[in-house]
Design a protein that fits this description.
Layout (H helix, E strand, L loop, with lengths): L2 E9 L8 E6 L2 H10 L9 E6 L39 E12 L5 E17 L6 E6 L8 H20 L16 H11 L4 H8 L4 H21 L17
Parallel strand pairs: 1-3
Antiparallel strand pairs: 1-6, 2-5, 3-4, 4-5, 5-6
Amino acid sequence: MTTVRLPLFPLNSVLFPGLVLPLNVFEERYRAMMRELLKTPEEEPRRFAVVAIRDGHEVAPSAPGMPDPTALPDRGPAAGFGTDPAKSFHGVGCVADAATIRERPDGTFEVLATGTTRVRVRSVDASGAFLTAELEELPEDPGDEAGALAEGVLRAFRQYQKRLAGARERSLSSGADLPDEPSVVSYLVAAAMMLDTPTKQRLLQAPDTASRLRDELKLLRSETAIIRNLPSLPASDLTRGRTSLN
């Protein structure tokens, strides 16, 4: 079992391997994290782990009524996540490699990172300026019939795209833009579908690629049928997830 300790960045969204993550970092705990990551030489990966929040606030209350009208100010690395922050997070996350960390004149940061490897959270440490976690790297097992399932998922995904774009609109992506490697397909589709956070989390922590693709095939067929039967509903209204403040 390979474990690693990395800074922990909780979000109201799920990061998948291979997907790009832009962040607007303004809270002091995450600014401290970015300052620490900048100490890593540019030729080495500047890694942190992203986990989806199960119960808690992505942005901690910074003043009375901000962002929750009933909230009191909260401080520290675990602000907004209770006395045992590990319980506030889903147990599987994704390592992010920050290709760009740019500090603005006001001390906030503009960050562009890419998901790399799935990890399981073993423990969370709130003793420093920002959260860190002991993480177990998870292998990507292809499972049975992943190749054939990926082909079926791509076909269903194209139909889903067409329904989202509308009968008179151009598809959101041409076939040439889509990959054919099963694990890449599984993560791309999981990220691109308009699903709530618990469903995306379920896809992230699937035991193997084939299981993820099977789940996605069912979801694509179901979501496409819903869109077909609700043609007047704008596609943007179909998402059930919250928008990340980062």
